[in-house]
Amino acid sequence: xxxxxxxxxxxxxxxxxxxxxxxxRARLFVVLTIxxxxxxxxxxxxxxxxxxxxxxxxxxxxxxxxxVVFLQDLANxxxxxxxxxxxxxxxxxxxxxxxxxxxxxxxxxxxxxITHGKDTVINVAVDNVDTDMTDDIQRALPSAIVAFGxxxxxxxxxxxxxxxxxxxxDTGFIPYLVVSGLILDAFVIAGILGAVAVAxxxxxxxxxxxxxxxxxxxxxxxxxxxxxxxxxxxAMAFPVFIVILGYRVLPIHPVEMMAALSLSIxxxxxxxxxxxxxxxxxxxxxxxxxxxxxxxxICSGSLEPSRFDGPVLWVLAHFSPxxxxxxxxxxxxxxxxxxxxxxxxxxEALALWAVLAMALAGNCIQRGIATGTGAxxxxxxxxxx
Amino acid sequence: xxxxxxxxxxYFKAGGRSILEDxxxxxxxxxxxxxxxxxxxxxxxxxxLILGLKSPTSGTVTLLEHAxxxxxxxxxxxxxxxxxxxxxxxxLTPQENLNFAASLYGIPNPKERISEILDxxxxxxxxxxxxxxxxxxxxxxxxIGRALLHSPDLLVIDEPTLGVDVEARHAIWSHLRLxxxxxxxxxxxxxxxxxxxxxxxxxAVLRSGxxxxxxxxxxxxxxxxxxxxxxxxxxxxxRIMNALYGRPDVLRMEATSTGLSIFLDPKASPDTIVRxxxxxxxxxxxxxxxxxxxxxxxAVG
Lengths: 385, 301
Hints:
The complex is a heterodimer. Chain A has 2 domains: about 5-45 and about 170-385, no CATH class; about 55-150, abc type-2 transporter like domain (abc type-2 transporter like fold, 3-Layer(aba) Sandwich). Chain A is about 70% helix and about 5% strand. Chain A has helices at about 5-25, 25-50, 65-75, 90-95, 110-115, 130-150, 175-205, 205-210, 215-245, 255-280, 285-300, 310-315, 320-335, 345-375, 380-385, and strands at about 55-60, 80-85, 100-105, 120-125. By secondary structure, chain B is of the alpha/beta class. Chain B has helices at about 45-50, 75, 95-105, 110-120, 135-150, 165-180, 195-200, 215-225, 235-245, 270-280, 295-300, and strands at about 5-15, 15-30, 30-35, 60-65, 80, 155-160, 185-190, 200-205, 210-215, 225-230, 250-255, 260-265, 285-290.
């Protein structure tokens, strides 16, 4: 007769090995789950590209030296445009065709007018299909004009902006997005694999066999969820390597990254397991995981620090594990502090989430077994176990 | 003989509905007992009580003369169960399915035992094939093998040959008889009379949650007697009815599309009845057959 713990370890390891064997034979499913995670990185990259690199034409009709100086100030200003020099006919043709967002025309005589203290006009033609773009142009041009005026020592301009950066280095929008995107990847991969491991037991009816065994089914199902978490951790290597090697975003604190990733996988595997026990079917798992993961991702500081989104969203974000995970990840990769809480507090919150998620999964699985098998004694047994 | 199962004055209610009423049943060790009954009779509930998946509303279920209630951990170690659904992991091989089962029953080094079981159920040659590729009969045998892995004293099987071909049925019956010879108590729920006759030492007949009788299957068949089916032209119906009217060896009659089904007293001779009928009218055809399970349920109910 085995000892009290020996039989439990045997049951957990039995579930663990069985799940690994099943996933080994369902390689296409695992690969497709990883592909979903990788396509999400591409999605956030496209989002970053389209928002920050709007194609804009600059027409320099002025023959004097100051037109070039203004153009340089415009290029140096903070905006989200990709400026390209063109002739006016070329630019207008592209604008009408929808190839570019705007045409900024520095007219002939611009240098003369400035030199002689006369008023001058910069014509801007905008495709105002998206007012966000129009607003950005309206903000960028005055800023460039002020910079130009200061550089030319124009009278009447006495305000100078002096920028003091909080962080000693700038972080690109796309590198910021792909790092937080890794948390969504962990959610998707671990959530789906955890949910399928549990839902499959109900869908195939094998849970009815598990309730006949001496130990409560929670042990073997727990082993399965552990196996799905291990496979998720291995699968997460793909998007992580893509971020490191493809996007050249190296973690400054790799241990921090590993800790946050491990805790996140535990949390998301357990959340998935709980959903699997509630759904009891594998078909709706992927869509539901995405449906839950995306809003949590967006409101948890994934696009910018969540405190910039207003107090309501910021408070709500604290109820999401993604908030703490993104906080640790942005610090681990970029050295950024995107949450008012310290990295240690974020890690502790993630650990607490892991414990809560395990309790939630255990509870949902027990309830699922009681309702899914009609075994009225199961809960009592699990409680005793 | 000591008892393997003792069910005393058991009532089971669910959702305000009475599923089992005043059921008392004793099953001796080393016997094969069949639980028979039409759909909704309470067979699955009775098996659920024996397996400890449900608790009786009142009454007691004692297994293997164990003081603990059915469903306790120590008893589960001594009971094997085969459910109606095969509940196998299709993506795993038979060997992996048995390995997993061994982990659930705390069998630490199961390799040798698994080989024994695979030999016993005739799946040694398919041990590394994916379970989804096995035939229905093979899958059924695998579930029985899985239930035997921990050498249970009591084996409970819900519909042992449901959906399997004739050859596989006989193989399964042969396994079960072998188990009985080794002292294992077997309880089977079945809807097949030939299965009960081939396997069971006793059958318990349930109807509407009540236990109607417990007796050897041969006695059950004898109780119902045989059935004489006769075909005749409609004009002869009155003559035939008159000839059979009031005869004590005719238990009951049922009209069919071509004639009559006449259920005879077990002691009656079908030859005698046929002669009586031939004297009364011309018969197109006649045949004698054993009563089927539905007819038995009607007869004993």
